[in-house]
């Protein structure tokens, strides 16, 4: 899936499993990139044994996935 931000000067290519979450062309999708399921600075990791999934980012989205950013391209020295 390819998209751009309406707020930031940002273009994103996102790999979504469309077999379980179909993507409609021209529809607006919102997403969040977070270090953990609570969206805070907690460094325990996504699936720490003491990480409670209640009141987490899972509640705010229909589709949640785990992964890593594997490539960032910087257009110029002031942009990423």
Outline the structure in words.
It is a single chain. Strand 1 and strand 2 form a beta hairpin. The chain has one domain (1-80). The radius of gyration is 15 Å and the shape is globular. Helices cover 0% and strands 8% of the residues. The model has no long low-confidence stretch (mean pLDDT 77). By secondary structure, it is largely without helices or strands. It is built from no helices and 2 strands. 1% of the residues are buried. The chain has a two-stranded antiparallel sheet with strand order 1-2.
Largest sheet, strands/sense/barrel:
2 strands, antiparallel
Strand content: 5-15%
* Tally of contiguous helical segments: 0
Note poorly predicted spans. none
End-to-end Cα distance: 19 Å
Radius of gyration: 15 Å
Mean pLDDT value? 77
Rough shape?
globular
Helix content: under 10%
Number of domains: 1
Give the H and E element order. Answer: EE
What is the β-strand count?
A: 2
The largest sheet has its strands arranged as: 1-2
Instruction: Find the structural class using helix and strand composition.
Output: little secondary structure
């Amino acid at each position: 899936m390819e998209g751009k931000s309406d707020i930031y000067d940002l273009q994103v290519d996102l790999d979504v499993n469309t077999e379980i979450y179909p993507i409609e062309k021209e529809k607006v999708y919102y997403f969040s990139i977070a270090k953990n399921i609570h969206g805070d600075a907690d460094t325990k990791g996504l699936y720490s044994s003491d990480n409670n999934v209640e009141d987490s980012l899972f509640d705010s989205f229909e589709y949640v996935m785990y992964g890593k950013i594997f490539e960032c391209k910087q257009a110029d020295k002031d942009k990423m």
